[in-house]
Amino acid sequence: GNSVTQMEGPVTLSEEAFLTINCTYTATGYPSLFWYVQYPGEGLQLLLKATKADDKGSNKGFEATYRKETTSFHLEKGSVQVSDSAVYFCALSLTGANSKLTFGKGITLSVRP
Amino acid sequence: GAGVSQSPSNKVTEKGKDVELRCDPISGHTALYWYRQSLGQGLEFLIYFQGNSAPDKSGLPSDRFSAERTGGSVSTLTIQRTQQEDSAVYLCASSSNWGYNEQFFGPGTRLTVL
User: Fold this and answer.
1) B84 burial class (0-12, 13-18, 19+ CB within 10 angstroms)?
2) What residues in chain A have per-residue pLDDT under 50?
């Protein structure tokens, strides 16, 4: 089956620190990969995506590269801000009749001033 | 334009009662999904509708759960004889039937079963 594994949390960083959140996946086909973010009190929203191997998704200073050889899609940001405090979910979907999202368990990021 | 909307935003019910949760997808989106977000299980897929095709119900946890989508737009998720383990946030998402499956999520309905 398909699955997504995220590193255990929570993660607490100081402002301007470097962020890496690990994500690996298992899929029976060729998935598209996503990072979703849930800010406090808000709904789930797409942060970035990549649809094929070696693609790099980027948004709001965050980046993630689709690595087929290591089945990974790690999220990085060079300098986090307090406003980045949120829950981050890695997810995959397979193109086809049912493109449901399979999510990792999510990780809570807190950024201190 | 309007995003995905869900109602109610919060629902508190007693064990054994039936509840209905509503989702209004983005206009023109043919695909609609229901997910459940709970502390123990994370985010889980429940059911998927695409146009006039038969829905994919493979994620529904029991036969107490059902969903319908009328006229290819609004969807209702019904939970019969609610149990305490049904307490969760129920999320609805919609997407167009082309592109790379980007799903847009509603704010969710927080269900509490006492």
Assistant:
1) exposed
2) none
